[in-house]
Structure formats: structure tokens, C-alpha cells
Amino acid sequence: MMRKLFLTLIAVLIFASGFLSHSVLVSMAGEEKSSADRLYKSVRIESGDTLWTIANRYREGSSLSSEEYVDQLRQMNRLTEDTIHAGQYLTVVYFQEAAE
User: Fold this and answer.
1) d(Cα 33, Cα 87) in Å, to the nearest integer?
2) Rounded distance, CA 51 to CA 49, Å?
């Protein structure tokens, strides 16, 4: 009985350490490795704009996918849904090559 418990504990520890290692590596791989400066500005939403078109316009120069950029827009602007309206202002981040 004690041996079975010990083996189960060892198996759980091996699984947990493998899972944790994988999570850390994935997290490190997902970090932005861009040498571009992050700049912020407020933009006025025009008719026909969506979070996705804004993402495609401003994410250039970063390693962010459109989906990651849209998530960032939602967080920065405290949006609970994807609906935006003409005349509304949003804070956006854009990227400019860092001066060396």
C-alpha cells in the first residue's frame, strides 16, 4: 500500500514538473522579441472600422498576431465586446523601430 502511494506520488511529481517546464518554455517563446519601441496614441474610429482592421493597421512591426493585438486592444480600452462605433476613440499601441 505504501509503495503504491509512493509510486503514485513520484508519477504525479514527474508529470507536474514536465507540465511546468513546458508551460515556462511556451511562455518564454511567446514573449515579444521585437526591437521596436511601443508607442501609444488615441485614434478616432471611422465608419467601417473593426477591432480586427485596427489590429491589422497598427500591429505592423511587432510579433503580435491579429488575435493577440485585438485582445490587447480590448484590455487597454476595457472593452467587454468587439463592437465599436464611428466617432468613438480608442487607445492603440503601434510599433516604431528603436533608434540605436
Assistant:
1) 34
2) 7
CA distances to 11, 17, 40, 100 from 70, rounded to whole Å, are 40, 33, 15, 29
Nearest Cα to Cα of residue 49 among 75, 87, 22: 87
7 contact partners, CB below 8 Å, separation of at least 6: none
Which region among 18-27, 53-62, 80-89 has the lowest average model confidence (pLDDT)? 18-27
Taking 3-state DSSP, the helix, strand and coil percentages for the chain, each rounded to the nearest 5, stand at 50, 20, 35
pTM for the full model?
0.61
Cα separation of the two ends of the chain: 65
